[in-house]
Design brief:
Bound molecules: 1,3-dihydroxyacetonephosphate, iron/sulfur cluster
CATH architecture of the largest domain: 3-Layer(aba) Sandwich
Strand order of the largest sheet: 6-5-7-9-8
Shape: globular
Distance between the termini: 45 Å
CATH superfamily of the largest domain: NadA-like
Mean pLDDT: 97
Order of helices and strands: HEHEHEHEHEHEHEHEHEHEHEHEHEHH
CATH class of the largest domain: Alpha Beta
Largest sheet: 5 strands, parallel
CATH topology of the largest domain: Rossmann fold
Number of strands: 13
Strand content: 15-25%
Low-confidence stretches: none
Length: 354
């Protein structure tokens, strides 16, 4: 069980035995029972940077999902080993764009005569293969905290952007932050011939959005925003940009997990907030800020945890730490050198964004 004192003690002892050899990273969506053992917590951008800044740690234990562990492997040295405590901790959004589908999409863009104007921008939430594709074609990675700068940069390199794989982050950033219109965006459906688009539509589009989404954030609705405004007069609605465009348009504030935490830290006592992001984080923030008289509620009680983030639990963490302490390397995430080379190019472009 999460509060099992035996497991807590075992995790503590294994971590102590490993000392500086291990560095534990925890994404904000992780369970409390796991977060308590993280050396740093952060959003996906901060964790990517922090992983790269620890060359002395032999093992990076990544409490998060598969694409984050891959990114950490790409950004760390070859001697460092990245461990994901449960290999089944994937991300359904990242799985919505495969290397084959994206290669096919590039053929479609080439056929339509637009490929040479297109710069790919891929959300961090994508496989290393997709990041490598992005690097090979002169594009950059982005996260929810730098998507605006990534799009601005990409529009300096070319006339069109292929945004992968989250249609919502792509659309929200283009419309909300860059002032583009919904008509500038088209949706590429990898399950339809030619993405379901005509060559004419591709020639007119400025943003070609991949038809992917987050199964958690995609469930927040405009009704949940209206309901909470009715229930809690004066409430501030703050949502993650993986939410649908209508939800983002109905909210008061939009930002990454790190932004959400900072906004609540800066909020005055007595203020009320409804948060549309993953439940582990919202609960932790509600508990943390209750003492400062800030009322924090979950935007929609019918939305569940991210099931893959939740796979990393205390028993898996204990197993990973104890194995490493006994000199047994388990669950290593290792990107092959050819993929790594180009994926790194795309990630480094992101890290160099102004
Ligand atoms: P950020 O931590 O970058 O806000 O991303 C949220 C997310 O869904 C990660 O999977
Ligand atoms: Fe993927 Fe959504 Fe879970 Fe983030 S919250 S890991 S995008 S499924």
């Amino acid at each position: 069980s999460p509060s099992d004192p035996d497991l807590v003690e075992r995790a503590r002892a294994a971590k102590e035995k490993l000392g500086d050899k291990v560095f534990v990273l925890g994404h904000h969506y992780q369970r409390d029972e796991v977060i308590q053992f993280a050396d740093v917590t952060g959003d996906s951008f901060k964790l990517a940077r922090d992983a790269a800044a620890r060359p002395e740690a032999e093992y990076i234990v990544f409490c998060g999902v598969h694409f984050m562990a891959e990114s950490a492997d790409i950004l760390t040295t070859d001697d460092q080993k990245v461990v994901l405590p449960d290999l089944a901790a994937g991300c359904s959004m990242a799985d919505m764009a495969t290397a084959e589908q994206v290669a096919e999409c590039w053929d479609v863009l080439t056929e339509a005569g637009v490929a040479d104007q297109v710069v790919p921008v891929s959300y961090m939430n994508s496989s290393a293969d997709i990041k490598a594709f992005t690097g090979r074609h002169g594009g950059t990675i982005c996260t929810s905290s730098n998507a605006e700068r990534a799009l601005e940069w990409a529009f300096e390199q070319g006339e069109k952007i292929l945004f992968l794989p989250d249609q919502h982050l792509g659309r929200n950033t283009a419309v909300r932050d860059l002032g583009m219109s919904l008509e500038d965006c088209v949706l590429y459906n990898p399950h339809k011939p030619n993405g379901g688009l005509t060559a004419e539509e591709l020639r007119h589009a400025k943003m070609i959005l991949w038809r992917g989404h987050c199964s958690v954030h995609g469930r927040f609705s405009v009704e949940s925003v209206n309901d909470v405004r009715e229930r809690i007069p004066g409430v501030n609605v703050l949502v993650h940009p993986e939410c649908r465009h209508e939800v983002v348009a109905a909210a008061d504030y939009v930002g990454s997990t790190e932004y959400i935490i900072k906004a609540l830290e800066a909020a005055p006592a007595g203020s009320k907030w409804a948060i549309g992001t993953e439940l582990n984080l919202v609960r932790r923030l509600a508990n943390r800020f209750a003492a400062e008289d800030k009322e924090i509620v979950f935007l929609d009680k019918t939305v569940c945890f991210c099931s893959t983030m939740n796979r990393i639990d205390l028993p898996h963490l204990v197993w990973a730490l104890e194995s490493l302490a006994e000199g047994k390397l388990i669950n290593r995430i290792e990107v092959d050198p050819e993929t790594e080379k180009y994926a790194k190019l795309a990630l480094e472009r992101m890290l160099a964004l102004p």
